[in-house]
Amino acid sequence: VCTADKLKTASAKQPQVHVASVANGSQGPVKILPNVLHNIGKTPLIRLNRIPQSFGIECEVLAKCELFAPGGSHKDRIAVRMIEEAEADGRLKPGYTVIEPTSGNTGISVAMVCAVKGYKCILVMPEKMSAEKHWTMNRLGATVVRCPNNIVHTTVADKIHRETPNSIILDQYGNEANPRVHYEETTEEILEQCDGKLDMIVIGVGTGGAVTGIGRKIKEKCPSCPVIGIDPVGSTMALPESLNSGPGFFEVEGIGHTWLPDCLDRSVIDKWIKVSDKDTFNMARRIISEEGLLVGGSCGTAVVGAIQAIKEAGLGKGQRCVIIFPDSVRNYMTKFLSDQWMLERAFLPDSEVSLGYSWWN
Ligand code: PMP
């Protein structure tokens, strides 16, 4: 909700928020951050020590842990960037309403930025997305509109925008700031954390912002490093088309579409891998229990895909694969964390990831 006080502190004039803002030059690290947005970026890169090894993998496998972002995902980066660019070019003014179609994480990040800056916020989210995301958005002050899974939620957001005076849509699916922030920030962090040594990068594809931005920078700075795109079974974004078994329902959230977002540049993806829900959620549960990382479902998808890609490429000792871990289990406490939810969908009782074994053959 927009109050006069919040608007006074609303930050059309605030400096661009990025990783550099947490440091203070010669005075050493800043002890107190002006607001939560200054804690966006600089996520840790963490080694996986058990799961890759259990598949006989000898290369180093590292997770870029966007799940530790203050809003809970890599979408914090794009939300603050899209909003500050809209402020800077005059499209977004105090008192305005920010509207955004979302599978949840962008919505949470946009709502977080709006809470700090004092904008009203309306988020449009398909029914299948978790209640946890919905409740978090509400608590951040946003209005949430649910739409049926079979309706493209961007059309609903467009309609609300037309009917809401003084509103803007950030449009993560078409906004070129989405891939650009990953090109400028996320990839630079990864390259710095890896001292420029990287033999494979694996990224789940939703809007395509992460894979496009990261892929473009990798092609420039590390051209021999393959970029692997991961697409859930039921989605139809992968190439060649023969990989896609046609449109269908899938439970994993945040990745996969049966249409192509404008942000997605498939030319940066060297290889696509398809992953089923069952493998996704069993792997996400394993990452939590064996690596101690409280990941969301799409991290499981990415790890299953990475294991297949590493084996197919024959990556070995002394080589290194980075996997993007987009969000945390916080969004899915009533979903794949629950044995009941897993059982109801016949994702259990296998305690192992079934697909993993076929790759040995
Ligand atoms: N995983 C999760 C959980 C997400 O919310 C998203 C964003 N939709 C992605 C992966 C994919 O990221 P991107 O939109 O940058 O392709």
Structure description:
The chain contains 12 helices and 10 strands. The chain is α/β, with parallel strands linked by helices. α8 links the parallel β7 and β8. α3 crosses α4 (105-117), α4 runs parallel beside α5 and α9 (277-291) packs across α10 (297-313). 4'-deoxy-4'-aminopyridoxal-5'-phosphate is lined by residues 73, 103, 105, 204-211, 253-255, 296, 298, 326-327. Its EC number is 4.2.1.22. Pathway: Amino-acid biosynthesis; L-cysteine biosynthesis.
Coarse structural class: alpha/beta
Give the number of helices: 12
The kinds of small molecule bound in this structure are: 4'-deoxy-4'-aminopyridoxal-5'-phosphate
Shape: globular
Reported for the largest beta sheet, the result is: 6 strands, mixed
Please indicate the percent range of residues in DSSP E strands (runs of 2 or more).
5-15%
Draw up the topology in text.
Blueprint (H helix, E strand, L loop, with lengths): L3 H6 L35 E3 L3 H4 L5 E6 L9 H14 L8 E5 L3 H13 L2 E7 L4 H9 L3 E5 L5 H11 L3 E3 L7 H17 L6 E5 L4 H13 L5 E6 L38 E5 L1 H15 L5 H17 L6 E6 L13 H6 L9 H5 L3
Helix pairs in contact: 3-4, 3-7, 4-5, 7-8, 9-10
The structure holds 4'-deoxy-4'-aminopyridoxal-5'-phosphate.
